[in-house]
Design brief:
By secondary structure, the chain is an alpha/beta fold. It is built from 17 helices and 26 strands. The protein folds into 3 domains: about 190 residues, Rossmann fold (3-Layer(aba) Sandwich), CATH 3.40.50.980; about 170 residues, ANL, N-terminal domain (Rossmann fold), CATH 3.40.50; about 100 residues, ANL, C-terminal domain (GMP Synthetase, Chain A, domain 3, 2-Layer Sandwich), CATH 3.30.300.30. About 30% of the residues lie in helices and about 25% in strands. It has a 9-stranded mixed beta sheet, with helices on both faces. It is globular. This is Fatty-acyl-CoA synthase.
Length: about 550
């Protein structure tokens, strides 16, 4: 007979005795450490390219340290908020290193918002300093006036007069960026916080229903997601990364810090334009970039001569479920596209359609299907599953049972600023609720079927708007498509499609409907197609809430 096991020991053991945590063996994780390492190890390598400007990692570190010193002199410290109204410029890169080094919180503003919403957000996060590009001076002048009149708040303004801007350099504040940097000696070291749980950034959701929510992220999550980006994408050292994704969006999916981690080169671009993107790729031998599906579609539809002479370029696509036709189109152009999925609340991408080697043996159509899935959790994210949103029970990986995608782990936000109710709801059951409806396939890859609010229920049948959009995108004349529910007296709802055509393309609604009938069950085929401009955010995400309003408005008139 085996002896009884010893009782479970709860008192400290030998591995807890005289082995204290100390400054030599434990440092809080923060992406601020990446800039210090790159300045030390890759000091003379090119870090930033912006028009005629070039900065090495040593220079970027010094400029960031000067900015940190200047902000500290203006009273910025731990827990203070610094707002940035900047396009993808060197100053935006530097803000991502300097502000967190002070223990302050970076609030990157969406450059397409209007003054009332910008003023609301800056008041909500109690911004103390604004760094703003002169291109946005008229808008920010209105914003600051509203901030003072409505909320009684006055803040310090630092004006950036970018050498690549084509607009007049109108000044709003008492400080000009370059002069401010010149007037302050750099800090000896850019250091992270004492506690890695400290906030690093606050980013606002779109606010399509009610006020926007301020997503608060922490140093630990930013560090781990920056590392995950490099591991997930198998990025080599010294990538040449083109900024087509706005850095204001989820802090550029943490890539300001990923590029620093790898000693790479930031190629800055003020505007998203197909010809400018392709020219920058060619001129600077760009090998990596990130973009929403609509930006990839712009590249597919660009003139062939603009795409000539490109090397091997790897792209991440996210921001919306990519149409199968887009993935297939980029593959035909020779671009290596990886599909990632995430939300602001998980620092941008937190899942990836990892390409298995055997997929290369499949035909292009099957590769497109496999690559079009939202995939599996990032390497440093602890959990991703599909749950029944009512019972919070995990659903089977059978490819048919639909539920809500949920995440848990270190790459999840702290919560929503000043909104404890929304924070508790988002974390109910110990998981972050995304609101995205999906199935888990047998290989544990997730495939989104729709946002919960975008499912169309017609005659009791659920219709995925994404599935209908995929069918439309397979017609060569379609450049952009969005499908929403239109109220219907008989069926409750029917699919209504909004379509933008590729340049020079001609097609009518009847032709597109006939095309969809070859790919979809009859009840899923759009009953109506409207050829109208589709509203999009600055990151290329289609704003379906506006289209739903159009659909409801027209239905009421009819």
């Amino acid at each position: 007979m085996n002896p009884a096991p010893p009782p479970f020991v709860t008192t400290p053991g030998i591995y807890d005795q005289d082995l204290p945590r100390n400054a030599a063996n434990h440092v809080p994780l923060s992406p601020v450490s990446f800039i210090e390492r790159s300045a030390e190890v890759y000091r003379d390598r090119t870090a930033v390219i912006h028009g005629a400007r070039r900065y090495t990692w040593g220079q970027v570190r010094e400029r960031s340290a000067r900015l940190a010193a200047a902000l500290r002199a203006l009273g910025v410290g731990k827990g203070c908020t610094v707002s940035a109204m900047l396009p993808n410029t060197p100053e935006m890169v530097e803000a991502h290193y300097a502000v967190p080094a002070l223990g302050a919180v970076l609030n990157t503003l969406n450059t397409r918002l209007d003054a009332p919403l910008l003023a609301w957000q800056m008041n909500h996060c109690e911004a103390m300093v604004l760094i703003t590009d002169s291109e946005f001076a008229p808008l920010m002048d209105k914003t600051l006036a509203l901030l003072k009149a409505t909320h009684g708040r006055e803040i310090v303004v630092i004006d950036v007069c970018d050498s690549e801007s084509t607009t007049p350099h109108e000044r709003l504040g008492a400080h000009e960026y370059e002069s401010l940097l010149a007037g302050h000696a750099p800090l000896d070291r850019l250091e992270g916080p004492a506690d890695e749980w400290d906030a690093i950034a606050v980013s606002y959701t779109s606010g399509t229903t009610g006020d926007p929510k301020g997503v608060v992220t922490h140093h630990r999550g930013a560090y781990l997601n920056a590392v995950s980006n490099s591991v997930t994408w198998t990025m080599p050292h010294f990538p040449v990364y083109l900024w087509t994704l706005p850095m204001f969006h989820c802090n550029g999916w943490c890539f300001p810090w990923t590029v620093a981690l790898l000693g790479g080169t930031h190629v800055c671009l003020r505007k998203v334009d197909a010809s400018a993107i392709l020219a920058a790729m060619r001129e600077h031998a760009v090998d990596h970039y990130c973009a929403a599906p609509i930006v990839h579609s712009l590249l597919i539809n660009a003139p062939a001569e603009q795409r000539a002479g490109l090397g091997r370029v790897r792209g991440l696509v996210a921001g919306a479920a990519p149409p199968a036709a887009m993935i297939e189109g980029m593959a035909r152009l020779g671009f290596d596209i990886t599909h990632v999925y995430g939300l602001t609340e998980v620092y941008g991408p937190a899942a990836v359609a990892v390409k298995a080697p055997e997929w290369a043996q499949a035909d292009l159509s099957e590769q497109t299907r496999l690559n079009g899935r939202q995939g599996v959790r990032y390497e440093l994210q602890e959990g991703m599953a599909v749950f029944d949103p009512e019972t919070l029970s995990e659903l089977p990986a059978d490819g048919t049972t639909m539920g809500e995608i949920m995440f848990r782990g270190n790459i999840v936000m702290k919560g929503y600023l000043k909104n404890p109710k929304a924070t508790l709801q988002a974390f109910e059951g110990g998981w972050f609720h995304t609101g995205d409806l999906a199935v888990m396939e047998p290989d544990r890859y997730v495939k989104i079927k729709d946002r919960s609010k975008d499912i169309i229920i017609s005659g009791g049948e659920n219709i995925s708007s994404i599935e209908v959009e995929d069918a439309l995108y397979r017609h060569p004349a379609v450049m952009a498509a969005a499908v929403v529910a239109k109220p219907d007296p008989k069926w409750g709802e029917t699919p209504l499609a909004f379509v933008e055509l590729a340049p020079g393309a001609l097609v009518d609604a009847a032709t597109l409907i006939a095309h969809c009938k070859t790919l979809l069950a009859g009840y899923k085929v759009p009953r109506e197609i409207r050829f109208e401009a589709i509203p999009k955010t600055s990151t290329g995400k289609i704003q379906k809430f506006q289209l739903r309003e159009r659909a409801r408005s027209n239905a009421a008139i009819e």
